[in-house]
Amino acid sequence: MILGKYSFGIGDRFGQQGRAQLGALLEAKRQGLDITPVWNKSHREHTIIGTKPADTRREADAAVRACGWDGLYFVDADHIGLKNVDEFIGSSDFFTLDVADFIAKRPDEADVEAFVEKHKRFIGSLEIDGIDESLDISDERITVIARKFLLAVKQAGKIYRHIKAVKGTGDFITEVSMDETDSATGGQTPVEMLFILTAIADESIPVQTIAPRFTGRFNKGVDYVGDITQFAKEFEQDVAVVAFAVKEFGLPENLKLSVHSGSDKFSIYEPMNRALKKFDAGLHIKTAGTTWLEELIGLAMAGGDGLAIAKEVYAKALSRLDELCGPYATVIDIDGEKLPSPEEVERWDGQRFAATLRHDQSCEAYNPSFRQLVHVAYKIAAEMGQRYLDALAKYEDTIAQNVADNIYERHIKPVFMGESAAADKSH
Q1: How many whole angstroms separate alpha carbon 302 and alpha carbon 391?
Q2: Contact, 306 vs 394, CB < 8 A?
Q3: pTM of this structure
Q4: The predicted structure's pLDDT at residue 184
């Protein structure tokens, strides 16, 4: 299986928006841009909502049939490890191997020494096309990197071989993820990226996408927080290192970067697009939770019982803030003082609720802390059960338009086409 040059992770918490999501990619295809859809849903999300990986497969297959999609599509076992991969093997054909927890855990020193010895040819000054400055590499530097990342890559190898033993060689897409760590906001350096890919090649993992950690904060559902110039430099350097590693180590020719928590990172979409054009590079971007937010925006705009559900989700989320935010602590930053009281929200009409939640930075009502809390509050909607699903069906037209526009206008156009995201003036 070969993943296309451009691919898009379209997570869908409740499995109801597959057709709307695919509609955005169909519009891109009409504009001459082929983007492979990848439905992604993590073990954490399945556990919180009470769904199974097979449910995601059913949604994807149904959406493809309903929309007449004739291209490739995949179902991603998102952020899995050895403990939970077996739940996904039957229904998934894309596996995001999350080994971030193994970063900085020391491997056997003998393994470190063997790695350094094997790759001594890189010691010195290394020139890589696309990177202005040469990379200075010493045996000490390789040793430090191996001690930090080698165990994580070896764990990825174990997971990959476990999947391969069941599904067979070449029958699934492999991604290696090292982005969601508890470390500081600094990104992985080009030299670190080089030797991570070296270790992946040593493990014989046919990785098609890799998700590194970049400088700055990639919080769920809100814009990038950090030095945009520094990010742009890191992104270009990583693209260049990937191209070098493909030639040097025989990794898959379509190997590309994957950006996690990539939804709504509007300020870095332009430099990302420039880099893709400069290097003629591919990209995988994941936008899991924003479809759920567009559902709630649509419910609020519908008024009546839809608005009542939206208000109830927020009120309960505020009362259970620590519980809901805990699993996402590394990828959210919520200012509690900026969260409105349930009493205040109860007085809002649907337009005000939607404007506060919708990610339109030109709108005075937009509240990123409110948005981040609602982003992680899908458990509340899951607890509503059929009541929530019935509301989605009742207001499907409004919600579907929000979902499709969000993906196409705010994400596909600026990331892949280089066009500015359309400002939403509906507030």
Answers
A1: 10
A2: yes
A3: 0.94
A4: 47
